[in-house]
Design a protein that fits this description.
The chain has 5 helices and 17 strands. Helices cover about 15% and strands about 40% of the residues. The chain has about 280 residues and is mostly beta strands. The chain has one domain: Beta Barrel (Thrombin, subunit H), CATH 2.40.10.10. Strands 1, 2, 3, 4, 5, 6 and 7 form a 7-stranded mixed sheet that branches. A 6-stranded antiparallel barrel has the order 8-9-12-17-16-13. It starts with a helix and ends with a helix. The chain is globular and about 55 Å long. About 10% of the residues have low confidence.
Length: about 280
Amino acid sequence: MIVPDNIRQCVAFLGVRKANGEFQLAGSVFWVGQEHAPKPEGGLSQAEPVYAVTARHVIDAIRNIGASEVYLRVNLASGNAAWVKSELSDWYAHPTDSTIDVSILKTGVPNDWDHVVVPYSLCVTETHIKQHEIGLGDEVFVTGLFRHHHGTLRNIPIVRVGNLSSMAEEKVQTRDFGLMEALLVEARSIGGLSGSPVFVNLGVTRMIGGQVKHATSNPIFFLIGLIHGHFDVATGSIDAAETDAIDSVSAQHVNTGIAIVTPFHNARRVIDAFEKGS
């Protein structure tokens, strides 16, 4: 699978400004909204509303350090990146369901930004799941922030590829959000990928209802959710035969390789709640 560049264009990075004026990256963010129609001069018109979407725990972490502003590091059409300020108080989470790890910001994507909006038509719904028989084993990929190589002049989102390991058949126990509705994917989530969009790749040819279905010449990608986190395991429980060799690091934890994904329909619940209340 080759991930098109325009898929990564929906992603930017989130951060905070420290007391010394330097910026510190904190997570990933992406945009969803209505379809965008081309302008006569070739730019993109702004269909309203457009929402920046990230994991709520990223915004909570920024709040917990006493910051009142959230900065978006966006790529510019000129080739560089810029930090754009938003007020932390403008980020919105679901008003009644604290298990939804989603925060949104009503915003826009100006034409001088090198970013695109994921249209709702490419966001997975139950209809998409049934129509395309999306399920276990389907290929997925995550694109977002890798803190150790985020890009000096502009954002460079990385891509991690995996497979759907579990649909949201029952709620998943998480450390900070309790029992939450989630998908599980076999793709390592790491610090910085929180809030990253997760896409499912349906390819060009697919067996549906016992019949071979062909798409166009391009693979079909759908936004299926966003990264919440991952499961860790204590290093001492990996392999009993190796415990002597790892006793000195037994307090450390290892990523199991299974990421927890908030389904997109829960992000849509947050958007709907915001629009009803605004």
